[in-house]
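Could you show me some protein's one-letter sequence and the numbers that encode its backbone in two labelled lines?

___
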Amino acid sequence: MVTDQVTAAAGPARSAPPDARPRRWAAPLWALPPVVLLALFFLYPLALVVQQSFRPDGGGTSLQPYADVFASVAFRHALWTTVWIALASTAGCLVLGFLLALVIAFVPFPGARTVARFVDVYLSFPSFLITLALLFLYGTTGVVGSFRFLTTPWGVLLAEVTYFTPFVMRPLLAAFSQLDTALLEAASSLGARAPRIVRRVILPEALPALAAGGSLVLVLCLNEFGIVLFTGAKGVTTLPMLVYGKAILESDYPGACVVAVVNVLISVGLYGLYRVVSRRAGA
């Protein structure tokens, strides 16, 4: 009797709410448009490049294009030039970017915020624009004087370090903005000097940002084409320049596709290595 009265006071029983969970078939449908666009505009052209790399000019399917390219001195020279310029540029960007980010983040000076915002704007500049600016300064008819090193590998190295350093600075500035300043004050109050504070407090916090920025710069340098082309460094042939030369100048499309496939494999391999190392390091 009491139970009936409580039920009547509570009113009529409400129907169970519909299942709020998304239906299982909804997720694949939402993922279908980007997958189709990715396959149409990226995977399909990439598959055509890989397919063409196995088709010599004589017809059929063969590994002969790979054998010809790997046996050529030009390919080995381009591979070595690409790797050492990319590694040297990445090292220069890491050192210079870390020092500049330290100054902007921790050294008080007028206009620090303006400089930090300029770094964001600088990232939108095309690479050839920076190269042209260097040519106007240090070219054969430049403002500063006639310096022919811009047409050498060292000129390419200077241009890449100048252009890609902000790609290291941006994640570093973001990491420094989240650093607890109380740690710096405590270290300073304990008598630690600036180099020790940088080495023991700031650098460990900046390592994930350095790894992210350095890996990005390394991949970009491996695939850089505009800087090498606009410096006019005729003796500097990288893998992207070799692709351009074989496809446009020599009309060797299978050879160009082979070099392009090698370049893609190197980039993907470096990205996979970065992912493995970052996971093991807990980044």
